Amino acid sequence: MEHIFNPSPSSATAQSFALLALWSPFDTSSSSSSETRDSRLIAAAAINMCSTLRCDQADTDEEVLQERRKLGVELTSQEVALLATAEQKKILVSLL
Question: Whole-model pTM?
Answer without folding.
Answer: 0.63
